[in-house]
Design brief:
Layout: H1 11-21, H2 26-35, E1 42-46, H3 52-60, E2 65-70, H4 73-82, E3 87-90, E4 103-109, H5 118-128, E5 129-140, H6 147-152, H7 156-170, E6 174-177, E7 181-187
The structure holds S-adenosylmethionine (SAM).
Length: about 190
């Protein structure tokens, strides 16, 4: 069976999927508003795809330290072209190529539903976050204006399960119902 080029972009279909994903940054601007990183903060994006979210952050505040991991070589090339100053590496949610406590924020936009082992991904996000740092997980909203985004949205039970897993790892989790995205945020406890 052919792979979904949006879930793991490879070859020409993957390159095309990257261009399609990069046509709009509405959701990414909304996620950036919610994250609201302070000047100079380090933001690590898991599954950055063509780099729209990182580009929005870089455009808003050049003092941000941007980094991220994605398993797709095709996405790595597109995101590097879009965000040349970011430290972008090949990697997956459950094995992030970054040091413990190295990020103020870990974010994943339209990505968390693709993680094959969600508890492992959440443990990795917490490892990479500094104490007091924040996690942002966002996925297409069931109330989004776009029918395609609504079709890709997840049911309430999926969100309840995700919030429970985030609470198990972080000790806290908050749901946010935005216009294009549903999101979950959590704070890494100070030790
Ligand atoms: C639908 S795209 C979203 C890309 C981007 N975050 C955006 O909002 O435009 C999904 C991305 O997740 C990446 N991905 C797939 N499996 C992954 C995993 N296990 N860990 C991290 N990223 C993954 C894919 O390579 C792809 O770039």
């Amino acid at each position: 069976m052919a792979r979904n080029p949006f879930a793991l972009p490879t070859g020409t279909p993957g390159r095309l999927a990257g261009w399609v994903m990069a046509r709009s940054d509405r959701a990414h601007r909304e996620a950036a508003d919610l994250l609201a990183p302070a000047a100079g903060a380090t933001v690590c994006e898991v599954g950055f795809g063509p780099g729209q979210f990182l580009a929005v952050l870089a455009g808003r505040d050049p003092s941000l330290q941007l980094c991220g991991a994605d398993p797709s070589e095709v996405m790595l090339a597109q995101a590097r072209a879009r965000c040349p100053a970011a430290d972008l590496r090949r990697g997956t949610a459950d094995e992030l190529p970054f040091y413990d406590g190295s990020a103020d924020h870990v974010a994943a936009i339209n990505n968390v539903a693709l993680w094959p082992d969600r508890p492992a991904g959440l443990a990795e996000a917490r490892r990479v976050l500094r104490p007091g740092g924040t996690l942002l997980l966002a996925w297409h909203s069931a109330a989004a204006p776009s029918p395609l985004n609504r079709a890709l949205s997840k049911p309430a039970a999926w969100w309840e399960a995700l919030l429970a897993e985030v609470r198990a790892e972080f000790g806290n989790a908050e749901r946010h119902d935005l216009r294009h995205l549903t999101a979950c945020t959590a704070t890494a406890a100070s030790t």
